[in-house]
Amino acid sequence: MMSEKKKTLIEREEGQSTIEFIVVFVLMFGFMFVYLKIALNFARGYMTHYATFQAARAFLVYDRNSTSDTNTDTMAATRAKEVFKRYMKHNQGDPTFNNPPSDDTAARLYVGAIMKYQEKFSFGFPFASLDPMEMISEAFLGREPTKQTCLERTCKAVRDLGAPSCDGAGGTPHHTLSDNGC
Questions:
Q1: CB-side exposure of 168: number of CA atoms within 13 Å?
Q2: H-type alpha helices, 62-146
Q3: 169: which residues sit within 8 A by CB, 6+ positions away?
Q4: 100: which of 61, 89, 127, 129 lies 20 to 30 Å off by Cα?
Q5: Three-class SS of residue 71?
Q6: No. of helices (H) and no. of strands (E), the chain
Q7: Which strands sit side by side in the sheet containing 133-140, from one edge to the other?
Q8: Using CA atoms, how far apart are residues 178 and 163, in angstroms rounded to an integer?
Q9: Average pLDDT estimate for 137-149
Q10: Which residues are 137's β-sheet partners?
Q11: What is the rounded CA–CA span in Å between residue 68 and residue 182?
């Protein structure tokens, strides 16, 4: 009986289950919050990618039915940024648009929107780096030519066939000005 009273604090087993519970509880909550943060990162990535796709789509199909191509790309980019903002109200920036010149057919395959943003992967040390990661979302689609460009291409094709003009001057009955395959 006396020997039990003389046991030091380290040798006693009272409160051991409480300490074990606290340690396991903290670890489980830590893992739960890390997985929650990763899930939120994935959800934000999906939303950013969808918003980038919608912005690219708005950029690529924008046509103001004008007879001039001037400022069409600028206006298309402005409209696409508005579409992007509708999906991503609280975002760290605007997408950029890759729109190479129309005479570079190989580069025209890569027309679309690019969104770069930074995201912390998790809560930081000890689970990941303290520095944010650079995330990139890209959506490249084939761009439709504007109606003015289509008109110019169709006129050129009609003139190449021997017609003097596309406006019907000179008595030529063959002039096609609307073609969805231009």
A1: 3
A2: 72-87
A3: none
A4: 89
A5: coil
A6: 4, 3
A7: 96-98, 112-119, 133-140
A8: 16
A9: 74
A10: 115
A11: 17
Q: How far is C-alpha 59 from the chain's CA centre? A: 13
167 forms beta bridges with none
H or E element at residue 33? helix 16-61
Identify the H or E element spanning 149: helix 147-160
Amino acid at 43: A
The closest alpha carbon to 137, from 100, 107, 94, belongs to 94
Are the C-beta atoms of 172 and 146 separated by less than 8 Å? no
Answer yes or no: are the C-beta atoms of 80 and 95 closer than 8 Å: yes
Which amino acid would we find at residue 16? Answer: Q
Evaluate the omega torsion of the peptide bond into residue 126 and state whether it is cis, within 30 degrees of 0: yes
The size of the chain, in residues, is 182
Give the number of C-alpha atoms closer than 13 A to the C-alpha of residue 57, restricted to the C-beta side: 8
Whether pLDDT at 129 is above 90:
no
- The per-residue b/e assignment along 143-169, b for 16 or more CB within 10 angstroms, e otherwise, is beebbbebbeebbeebeeeebeebeee
Token pair in block for residue 180: 């969805």
